Amino acid sequence: MMTIQWEQMRGQNSARMDEVLALYDRSFPLEVREPHDVFYSGFQYAQTAAPNQFCLLIGVEGDQLLSFASGHYLAEVNTGFVVYIAADSNHRNRGMGSKTLAKMEDVFNEAAFLAGKSKVSGIILETEKEEEAATTMEEMECRKRMQFFAKNQYQPCLGIDYVQPPLHSEGPTVPLNLLFKNLDGENVHDEHVWEIVQQIYSEKYSAVNNIENTILGNCLKQMGI
Q1: Looking at the whole model, is its pTM more than 0.85?
Q2: DSSP string, 53-76
Q3: Fewer CB within 10 A of the end CB, N or C, for the chain?
Q4: Domains of the chain
């Protein structure tokens, strides 16, 4: 039985990056996929953004890539934001998705510690809405994802009609579910979720994706933030 090795990518290993991006392309439909260069802007951003961080975690066994997750540590709100998570379809039945999420929690805890906190207070992520699915197949996929996240203690943030800004120029805003895993036992108020969303917009969609501020401002207004 081989063991899974976890590594944080910094963008230097180009052969490994190509594998990560190939798994990424296989795992997500075009409309929710950011251009590849956004990953590289993430690495650039990370060089000067501390205590905020961009993280790209991979799970490997031997020379085989099993899974990856990308995300941001948002220091201002002491929250981790998982942007993408995918496991190679040949290894999904080994619980790679849950293992990768758990490992991301460790990564965010390390980032929180570097930011002077004892641990990360929560982790947030976006996921497709069932009612936005175009086909029955997509609807089933959405339901499966929601069940997977629920099993990993991620609960829907009900106090916000969340939208993701357009990832491609001229694209539409995308209504998504926002899920939150509470790690500090405090009740999470809507106001706190709104603060997290503002940080996601500023540290991710503005600083890394380079989406125009007018577009981001309109999205926030649409959500009542």
Answers
A1: yes
A2: EEEEEEEEETTEEEEEEEEEEEGG
A3: N
A4: 5-222 (3.40.630.30)
Rg of the chain over all Cα atoms, to the nearest angstrom = 17
- pLDDT value at residue 181: 98
Distance CA 217, CA 165 (A): 10
User: Cα–Cα distance between 48 and 29 in angstroms, integer?
Assistant: 31
Q: If you ran DSSP here, which 8-state letter would residue 156 be given?
A: E
Main-chain dihedrals φ then ψ at residue 187, nearest 5 degrees? -70, 135
d(CA 96, CA 59): 8
Check residue 30 and give its pLDDT.
84
Residue 160 exposure: Cα atoms within 13 Å on the Cβ side:
31
Q: Is 210 helix (H, G, I), strand (E, B) or coil?
A: coil
DSSP 70-123: EEEEEGGGTEEEEEEEEE-GGGGGGTHHHHHHHHHHHHHHHHHHHTT-SS--EE
Query: Mean pLDDT, consecutive 10-residue segments, the chain of 225 residues?
Result: 88 89 93 92 96 98 95 98 95 87 98 98 95 88 94 96 92 94 89 97 98 96 95
C-alpha 51/C-alpha 111 separation (Å) is 7
- Quick one: pLDDT at residue 1? 63
